[in-house]
Amino acid sequence: LLLLCAVGSDAFTYTCNEVKELIRKNTTIYAGNACIALDEFIPTDSGFTTEVYFLDGTGRGRYSFAQVSTLGCIPSSLNSWKIVTEREDEGEGIDCSYEFTVLFSSMETHLITAKGDSMHHRSYQAYNMTVVNPRGGILIDFSCNNTQQPLHFYTGLGNGASEQMYYYGSSKCDERLTVFAWDTAITINTPDNGYILITYWGTGGYLSLGSVSYDVLLMGSGRSSNIVQHGDEDKFIWLSPSLSDDLKFHVDGFADMDSKLGNSLVFTAKCKENNCTETTAPITDRDIHMVLEADFLAVNYNTKVADDQWKDDDLFFMRIASTPLDAPEVTVAPPVKANTDYSCNCDLVNGKADFSSDLWLDIVFLIDVSHAMGAEKINKATAVVDSIVASLTLDTQSPRFSRVGLVAVSNKAEVIDDFSSPFKTPTNLQPTTADGADIRSGFVSALSIFAKSSHRSARQLIYIIAASDSSPLTIEHATDFKNKGGIIAVTEVDSTASEPLLRDLASPGYYNINFNDNTNTDLQLLCDANCFCSSGFTAFYKDQYSRVTGDRGCYQIQSTTDAYELARDACQDGGSLLTTVHDEDKQNFLISFLSSKYGPKKPFWIGYEYNGHDWEWIDDSTSPYSKWGSGQPDVKDGRCAFSLQTTGFNSAWFAGDCSTDKYFICERAPCTVNNVCK
After folding, report:
1. What is the pLDDT of residues 232-260, one digit of tens each?
2. What is the pTM of this model?
3. Is there a contact between 446 and 405 (Cβ–Cβ < 8 Å)?
4. Distance of CA 294 to the CA centre of its chain
5. Whole domain around residue 625: which residue ranges?
6. Which CATH number goes with the domain that contains 660?
């Protein structure tokens, strides 16, 4: 499989203002397909849509936004794109009050632009469709026939998380289903049998649904860098089902809100006579299973930074059903979210890092004490260090403890504390007259602290707080340190005088230019560093803040092929599990992971067995996610499941003879504050 990346970019879904940035920086995007959806009021016979182009990797294929908008998407034979223009203002004058959405993807899809008027589209077997509203807010009515398979929903478009497409969840499509998303782009994978008819609209952030007699799916996310209805408009949905008064609203799903911004969902149930009102407490992070009695239901998506909402990492997905108050109790199957069996356990609770005493890290703080830093900033840096250290467990007899060292750096490095004795607070560092800090010598001193201490399985972290760098050379040891699993965190005190070396030194996601005294945020950074995979295992992660963690588990490709039972036992003997698959992101990750070592289209076992009556996951999961190929599973072929890349980025599961040899991947939980790896 092609390794995908975007030079100078961390997204595959772009708004108008972001496209201007792509033009200015001459950014290359590596993906097979370029797509665009225009606001319904943008003309395609004049203006910027005829002056801005997709340029493919050959440099010869040039297509205007207006041309591509009539097709939805166009392919590139070289899997790379730039956005270019011949305008004198180089695109800066594009009027972004008329919004549009540009998407890049290695996955083929049928792109539909949702506008104010309803439109129709019929979808057949195993079909990807992407519905886009550049202003955010998408409403879809589904009419499903001759299928018992679920619909799979994603935010964004692409080949999984590597292209900023994230799994929302799955839900069975009964005869009718209404879906509303506070989102810019959602992708739906439809069943491989039967067909569906959809009607869709672009709505904005406010929606009132009257006379709804069937279930409603409600979802929203900022994880694919979608704008999620920016601006000050209320994000609000009002449900008024076409049933008699006195109803029960059954709400089942989950919310996983970005702790950095403090967004929430609030449900309000109301009666026509206004004599009954029930409002839930703000919901930020939990599974949702509740029944509300009323005639109407209002759902508010409360966002605190309206204009920057696309920067959040919110994700929520729920199914809402309504029944008469006197109807017999029914069990509503909740939508199923992506597998969350693994977690770094780094969420802040009411803004506090309750996990801090369980951190087990080896940390060396490296503090700039040069004239460039100054006494005031040095005092602030030492206060940050003391506050962090006060939250850690330093007792080496505890089950989980951290070791802390300190290096002061000016024109030379001085080791203030190493791991040989308990860290001494308060920290007292004095400014020097040196113009800048020799970060290179400080880094070497930090490495010597690790080298002289007794080895243990804890992760090593160097935390640099600096305003300058006078190193004459690059720090050649840094790459080796990071390749061996070490983390380098950098807080650059003076962001107006950015030091390229400091920025380049930092591990992905660990560079910070906001020099503040929020200890809980620093502790969350340490907790993310404390979420890693044992030696020999590769992390699968959700890319929050671009930090590599093990929050989706740790995986190891085995060097031999084996029969199913031998593969399963080999993983268990090593303290792992034969890999299971409960969502599309993980399916794509495993296909790409195996291909990176053995090449494409290699079959591998997954932990899914037929017991004579049903197929069972060896991790006891009841996830409805399915990836069976056409005509599968056919137990005449065998009672053990394997996964196989079929064509392009497509893949499927097949039933196979358990005695045949196939590749296999073992998975295990990451090392975290709750799981100390030996």
Report:
1. 456 778 887 655 567 788 888 888 887 76
2. 0.55
3. yes
4. 36
5. 554-668
6. 3.10.100.10
